[in-house]
TrEMBL record:
Protein name, as recorded: Cytochrome bc1 complex Rieske iron-sulfur subunit
Coiled coil: none
Family in the record: Belongs to the Rieske iron-sulfur protein family.
GO cellular component, one term: plasma membrane
Native species: Streptomyces regalis
Domain (Rieske) ranges: 237-332
Length: 349
């Protein structure tokens, strides 16, 4: 059925189209708008109902796809793989998440496009440009146009579309909420604690042997790790990033900070190797000045004065580990660091 088959009185009212005529002042005439052709939905309520059902079906499909996304995230193992022709072997979870999330987005978009193209008004309206600052008349016209557009969208009358659209838009954000689970478990107090504890031996990173005071010469720089932490451990990188130690032996008389002297053993001091700027490993030591330098951004710490920052962007001193010697003569920790190691974080007290 076309608009030519519909009696004139059943057709929507036409808008006037003014066509300008070229003259000397305006040599280019405004051709005006072409005659408006009515859609089948404009003149046949049964066709409009079919479009309404189609839009509602797309919105409903989006809701089902969102539910499928959440179900896939919860039920499919992250290491399961499937074969998809002609792509090949794929991770089943990634494939399901991409398929359902893409389907949910596509159905919302397709439903909105189909709604706009078949049920909303498609009459072209030409309007003159106006100054940026709207006059009261323009504001009134905008509000009138908005109300007219809302009326023509049939959102109030097409309840099936409205309800399914609200359902699709309400469910879809749940996909993002569920994805937050992939950020991992809450850190709790992990950032505040390391593997160091009372009685843990200081193990040389190079020789993998426990350290004795005699192994640390004055002016030398030694790197250590906690006893029991091995490179083949699954959590090695995570733990060493917090527990790595920098051990230096100073003359006790050169130590300026009282607490540093109390926490040392015969001039041997143990500081975190992790720079307090962005977490780079400190590896440079100047024995004459007792300064430790971070090679990343040149933050400099005075190891003879509580490892305070004397240059660079680091925000606070390196944490010191209290050490002693056990009955067998090996250097051991007397507890954990009393403050978090590495860069500052927002929960830091």
């Amino acid at each position: 059925m076309s608009s030519q088959d519909i009696p004139e009185e059943n057709l929507p009212a036409e808008q006037d189209a003014t066509v300008a005529v070229a003259d000397e002042k305006h040599p280019f005439a405004d051709p005006g708008l072409p005659p408006h052709e009515h859609r089948i939905q404009d003149i046949d309520e049964r066709a409009a109902k079919r479009s309404e059902r189609t839009v509602a079906l797309l919105f409903t499909a989006s809701m089902l796809a969102t539910v499928g996304f959440i179900a896939s995230f919860v039920t499919i193992p992250h290491d399961k793989s499937i074969f998809v022709f002609p792509i090949g072997h794929l991770n089943a979870l990634n494939f399901a998440l991409g398929l359902t999330l893409g389907g949910a987005l596509f159905c919302i978009g397709a439903g909105a496009v189909h709604w706009a193209r078949t049920l909303m008004s498609d009459v072209e309206v030409a309007d003159e440009r106006h100054p940026i600052e709207a006059s009261p008349e323009v504001k009134a016209k905008v509000m009138a146009d908005f109300k007219q557009g809302a009326k023509e969208s049939a959102l109030g009358r097409r309840k099936l579309i409205r309800n399914t659209m609200f359902g699709a838009l309400a469910l879809f954000p749940l996909s993002g909420v569920v994805l937050l689970r992939d950020l991992g478990p809450l850190p709790g107090t992990k950032l505040r604690h390391t593997l160091w504890s009372k009685g843990k031996l200081l193990v040389n990173m190079n020789t993998n042997e426990p350290l004795r005071p005699s192994d640390v010469a004055v002016g030398s720089l030694t790197f250590a790790k906690p006893e029991g932490l091995e490179e083949h451990d699954h959590e090695f990188q995570t733990e060493i990033a917090k527990a790595a130690l920098m051990i230096v032996r100073l003359q006790p008389a050169d130590i300026k900070d009282k607490r540093e002297l109390e926490w040392s053993h015969e001039g041997i001091v143990a500081y975190s190797k992790i720079c307090t700027h962005v977490g780079c490993p400190i590896s440079l030591y100047e024995q004459q000045t007792h300064h430790a330098l971070c090679p990343c951004h040149q933050s400099t710490f005075d190891l003879a004065d509580g490892a305070r920052v004397i240059f660079g962007p680091a925000g606070h001193a390196l944490p010191q580990l209290r050490i002693g010697v056990n009955d067998e003569g090996y250097l051991e920790a007397l507890g954990d660091f009393e403050e978090p190691v590495g860069p500052a974080f927002w929960e830091r007290g």
